[in-house]
Amino acid sequence: MSRLLVISAIAACYFMFAILLNSVGTVILQSINSFGISKPDASTLEGFKDLSIALVSFLVASFIPRIGYKMAMLFGLLLAAGACLVTPIWGDFVAIKLLFACIGTSFALVKVSVYSLVGQLTHDTRSHSSLLNTIEGIFMLGVLSGYWIFSAYIDPEAPTSLDWLNVYYPLAAVLFITAGIVLFSPIQKAPVEPQNNGLIHEFVDMLKLAYKPLVLVFVLSVFLYVLIEQGIGTWLPTFNSEVLHLPVDVSVQITSIFAAMIAIGRLMAGQILKYMNWFLFLNICIAMMAILMLLSLPLADDIDPTGITGIFNAPIAAYLLPLAGLMMAPIYPIINSVMLSSLEKAKHAQMTGLIVVFSALGGTTGSVITGLVFDTFGGKNAFYLSLLPMALLATTLYFFRNSTNKLASSTMQSGQ
């Protein structure tokens, strides 16, 4: 029962931050409409979100086990709730920037705690991968919900209105409720290695961890994956609106298909991995993702916007592009699980800190590059550009597989 309560608490946290973090694409579209800013300026929201995640994770990931996962999660939830309350009152693009900085800071604390708790709640690679895929699947269900929640506050007849900011009031209320769930959950403090000499020593250990060849190729894979996901996911609402000529609310609603596909893909991945090697599976996913992009983008040409009033009469390209989420879905949790399962549990917080840092850097890079290309060369070319990091990701996964195999072989030999 106590294990179920902890899982419920971390799932609730992940669900709420999924809504907040992945609203950035919708908020970018609405900020362009409401505040009259350019696409490159709007893309800085991804930086405020991701760079705050990276900075906080880098500085405090190794310290969180000492202060306790429950305290870190509670602080993150309350900070995000407070920022949500202030944003609609302030009602300015500066407030939006500060909101995403607070959300990023909060999520850094929550993600390091959640990933470390998954290590406490599982005992082998299979169970770790299963629970992590489930948690990440719940995260994507939160993303899916977020698109519909935000679209409910968007008035397509008044695109410059700031009434959509009122969505943050109910979100703040649910964050406070989630904090209550965490407060009453039996979350245990992490085991701390007795030979450590203090917080500075633990921080240095995290830096040393990043110099290992296996870890370097892993964090590069994480960087490339998130670059692809955020580049597509963040700009998909704007692509739907400006390239496919969908109404603003429909552009946001139909983007929910992308989140739904990622959720389905992550929930299915645990079952598929029972019968297929993870490396083969992920390479198939990357190949199918590239093929889908090549097939769907040409369909975005010469679309007649007349008669498009809802998601049921949108052009075929609006449905095909989000299907890329089904193929990219398993990549992130699987490589994270393979990496974390190869480390002793005492180093999970440090490794998670590196994961969060490079995820954040990849997200910001993907969003900014896509925004610049979108603004300069158009949305189609911006999405075609995603084929390059897909090819690079397939390459890094090859070296990651070889490194994990070598580590497993050396571990077996030393144990004999």
Q: Low-confidence stretches at least 5 residues in length (pLDDT < 50)? A: none
**E-strand count:** 0
Kindly provide the name of the CATH class.
Answer: Mainly Alpha
Radius of gyration: 21 Å
Walk me through what this model shows.
The chain has 416 residues and is mainly α. The protein has a single domain, classed as Up-down Bundle (Growth Hormone, Chain: A). The chain is 78% helix and 0% strand. The chain has helices at 2-21, 24-35, 39-60, 64-67, 69-90, 93-121, 125-151, 168-183, 199-209, 213-242, 248-272, 278-296, 316-320, 324-328, 331-341, 348-377, 379-384, 387-415. The radius of gyration is 21 Å and the shape is globular. It starts with a helix and ends with a helix.
Question: Layout of helices and strands, plus pairs?
Answer:
Elements: H1 2-21, H2 24-35, H3 39-60, H4 64-67, H5 69-90, H6 93-121, H7 125-151, H8 168-183, H9 199-209, H10 213-242, H11 248-272, H12 278-296, H13 316-320, H14 324-328, H15 331-341, H16 348-377, H17 379-384, H18 387-415
Helix pairs in contact: 1-6, 1-7, 1-8, 2-3, 2-10, 3-6, 3-16, 5-6, 5-8, 6-16, 7-11, 7-15, 9-16, 10-11, 10-15, 10-16, 10-18, 12-18
In a few lines, what is going on in this structure?
By secondary structure, this protein is mainly α.
Keywords summarizing the entry:
Growth Hormone, Chain: A; mainly alpha; globular; about 425 residues; 18 helices
